[in-house]
């Protein structure tokens, strides 16, 4: 089985301009991270900074919304 992955969205990160929007992680369930903010759209890519880890972060993608 050959699975093709489209990395074009991630390669565009090198060329895009970025905006700093802040939010706060409020819950983690499995691989799902729930947050209060930031104002985001489906498909947006985010960096989630790990508190107390010297600027370490993970990449995440907005895949859905819960409630409002």
Secondary structure class reads mainly beta
Strand order of the largest sheet: 1-2
Question: What percent of the residues sit in helical stretches (DSSP H or I)?
Answer: under 10%
Mean pLDDT: 82
Q: List the total number of helices.
A: 1
Indicate the overall shape: globular
Ends apart, CA distance between termini: 40 Å
Oligomeric form:
single chain
- Element-level helix/strand string: HEEEE
Radius of gyration: 14 Å
Share in β-strands: 25-35%
SS elements, strand count: 4
- What can be said about the biggest beta sheet? 2 strands, antiparallel
- Unreliable stretches: none
Structure description:
The chain has 68 residues and is mostly beta strands. It has 1 helix and 4 strands. It has one helix spanning 8-11, and strands at residues 24-29, 32-36, 45-49, 57-61. A hairpin with a 7-residue loop joins strand 3 and strand 4 (57-61). The longest helix is centred in the N-terminal third of the chain and has 4 residues, at 8-11. The radius of gyration is 14 Å and the shape is globular. The mean pLDDT is 82.
What is the compact description of this entry?
This protein is mainly beta. It has one helix and four strands, in the order αββββ.
Structural descriptors:
single chain; 68 residues; mainly beta; two-stranded antiparallel sheet; two-stranded antiparallel ribbon; 1 helix; 4 strands; globular
Topology:
Blueprint: H1 8-11, E1 24-29, E2 32-36, E3 45-49, E4 57-61
Antiparallel strand pairs: 1-2, 3-4
């Amino acid at each position: 089985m050959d699975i093709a992955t489209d990395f074009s969205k991630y390669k565009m990160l090198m060329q895009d301009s970025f905006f700093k929007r802040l939010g706060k992680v409020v819950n983690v369930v499995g691989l799902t991270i729930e947050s209060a903010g930031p104002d985001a759209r489906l498909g947006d890519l985010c960096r989630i900074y790990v508190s107390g880890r010297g600027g370490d972060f993970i990449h995440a993608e907005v895949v859905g919304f819960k409630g409002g």
